Amino acid sequence: MSGYSGKFLEVNLNTGEISNYEYPTEWQKEYIGGRGFTTKYLFENLTPGTDPLGPDNILLFAIGPLSGLSLPSSSKMIVATKSPLTGGYGDGNLGTRASPQLKKAGYDGIIVKGKADKPVFLEIINDKAVLHGAEEIWGKGTYDTEKYLIDKYNRNAGFLSIGQAGENLVKYATVRSQEGRSGGRPGVGTVMGSKNLKAIVVIGDQELPIANPDIVRKMGSDGYKQVKKADFYDGWMRQGTTLILDWCQETSTLPTRNFQEGTFEGSKGVDAVKLHESMTERYGCPRCNMQCGIVIEDDKGRASELDYENIGMLGPNLGIDNLAKVGVLNYMADDYGLDTISLGSVLGMTAEASDKGAIDEKFSFNQYEKAIDMIDRIAFAKDDLGRLLGQGTRIMSETWGGDAINWAIQVKGLECSAYNAFTIPGMALSFGTSPIGAHHKDAWVIAWEISESNRDAYSPDKADKVIELQRIRGGMFESLVTCRFPWIELGYDLENYPEYLKNVTGSDHWSIDEVFNVSDRIYALIRAFWVREYIADGKTWDRTMDHPPVRWFNEVLKGDGPFAGKNLNRDEYDVLLNHYYDKRGWDHNGIPTKATFERLGLSDVASDLSKIVKIV
C-alpha cells in the first residue's frame, strides 16, 4: 500500500552495523503503524524476561501512514520499549520534526539494539545513516543538546534527545524534541540512556508516498480551515489545556498535596487566566494550527512551556500556588528530560512521607527551593534518596513500607496523570486499564463521566465508554500516528481519518469499524506482552494489576468541597472491571480469551501464552 516505505532503519549499537528491516506487508492492514508496529515488533522480537536496562532491550521509534502529511496536527511519533519503570510495555507519543523528516527519509521507523561503548548520536540523511561520537553533548541538558545539533545541522531537521536524567537512568526519563515536546513516560528516555544513545538527527527530502495526493491535499486544506472555524478555537488559543484546571477545582478532581485533596486554595495563582496573563509566546508541533504549548517567563527569567498536566502535578500537587515558580520546576524537568507527571508524583509522595515522619528528610509541601534541590538530586542520582526517588513511587512505597502503599499514586508502576479520581469510578477504570500504566491519553473519560453520566455510579456504560475512547485515542490516533486534539478539543470529525487512510494508502479496506478492530488487536497484544513479561520476571499477574491507586479505596478525599469524605468502593469497582473484561472478551484476570485471540487473528499469540498461563 501507499503511505508506507515498508522498512525500518535497524541500528545495532554493539557492532555499529546499520541496515534496513523490511517488515511483513500484512502489518499495514493488521496494525496500521505507530503503536501497532511497535507492539507487534516487540512481542515477536524481544526475549521474555529481558532486563529493560540491559543491552538486549529494544528501543523503537515509529510513525504511521498519516504521520507528517499536510493534515491537522499530523507530526507525531511513537517511542516504545520494555519499560524500566513498569516492567511491561511502555510507549509515548511526541510531536516532532523527526516525524515528517523520517517519512521523507524513506522509513516507517527506527529499531535500536545493543549498547554503544561510548556516547553516540545517530545521523539519518535519507538512506544514509551514521553513528557519531557524542562526547561533546553527553552530560548536557536537552536545551543545550538541541542547540548544538541545530548549529551543526539546521533548525528544520528532526531532533530527538535525552537529558541528564536519561543518562543517569532515572526510570521516568523521557525522549525530548523541539525544546518543548516530550514523550515516553514509562522510561523510554532511560532506555535510550542505557544504550549510550544521546540523540537522533533525521533529514529527508524524498517524495511522500500518497496514493491520491490531490484528494489528500484538499482534505488537509479543508481540515485546517475547519479547525480554525471551530467555536472553541479562540478560547483554546488563549489558554490551551490549562482551561481544565478550573474545572478540576470545581469538580474536586484537582490533585492537591499528593492527591490527598481535590481542591486547592491557591488555584487562582496557577490557573488558565494566570497563564494567559503570563504568556510570552506559543510553541507547537509541525503541521499544527492549534498549538498547545503556552510559554511563560519562569521565576529565573527563562522560557518555560506549560500545559495542564505539568502545572497540576508541579503546582497544586506540591502545594505551590505561584505560576512562575511552577515554571522553574517544569523547565528543570524539561531540560533534564524528566517526565513532569511522575516527577510531581514522586515529589508529592516524598513531601507526604516527610510530613508523616516516615523518612528523615525534611521536605514539605509548598517548599519551592527545596523542590529545586530535590529535582537536582533525582536527575543526577546524587545520593541514596535521589537514586530512590528516581525509581518511581512504586519502588519508593516498597522501600518505605507501612502506609506508604497509600501514598504511591500509580498503576503498574506508572504514576497517575493530574486527575484525582477518588470519586470518579470511570476515570479510575481508565487509569487501571491503560495499556502503559496510569495515564490519561488512552481514555480521558472524566469530562463525559461528570457531565453526561452519574458521577458516583459504577454503571456498565462507564466501562463501555472507556473502551470506546481507548479504541479512538489509544488505538486509532496512536497507530495513524496523529494528534487527537483536533477531534477532542475542536470537534474535527472522526470519519475524516478512515477517509485519509483510504486516499493515502489507495485501499478501500478502511472504515471506522475496521480501524477499531485493529485497535482491539493492538490492546490484546499489549496485554499479552504484559502478562508474558510479568511471568518471565517472576511476578504474579492477576486482576489487581488493573486496580487504581489503593489510596482511592483505603482513604477518603480530604479538604473542602462537596465530595470530601468520599472514596471508591473496591467491590463495586471490581464489578465495573468485570464488565470491562467481558466487553473486551478477556477473562476475569484481565487476559484475553482464546476466542478473542482467534477473532483478532492472534491464535499464535494464544498458543504461545498458553504455555505459561491458563487461556480460557
Q: What's the CATH class label of one domain?
A: Alpha Beta
Number of helices: 26
CATH architecture of one domain: 4-Layer Sandwich
The assigned structural class equals alpha+beta
Helix proportion of residues, in percent? 40-55%
Mean residue pLDDT: 96
Order of strands across the widest beta sheet? 2-1-6-3-4-5
Strand residue percentage: 5-15%
Instruction: Output the CATH topology of one domain.
Output: Aldehyde Ferredoxin Oxidoreductase,  A, domain 1
Please give the alpha-carbon distance between the first and last residues.
36 Å
Radius of gyration, CA atoms, in whole angstroms: 22 Å
- Runs with pLDDT <50, length 5+? none
Query: What would you give as the CATH superfamily of one domain?
Result: Aldehyde ferredoxin oxidoreductase, N-terminal domain
Strand count: 17
Shape: globular
Main beta-sheet annotation: 6 strands, mixed
Give a concise summary.
This protein is an alpha+beta fold and 616 residues long.
Protein architecture, described:
By secondary structure, this protein is of the alpha+beta class. Among the domains are: 197 residues, 4-Layer Sandwich (Aldehyde Ferredoxin Oxidoreductase,  A, domain 1); 187 residues, Aldehyde Ferredoxin Oxidoreductase Protein, subunit A, domain 2 (Orthogonal Bundle). The chain is built from 26 helices and 17 strands. The strands form 5 sheets. A 6-stranded mixed sheet has the order 2-1-6-3-4-5. It has a 4-stranded mixed sheet with strand order 8-7-12-9. A 3-stranded antiparallel sheet has the order 13-14-15. A hairpin with a 2-residue loop joins strand 16 and strand 17. The longest helix has 25 residues. It is globular, with a radius of gyration of 22 Å.
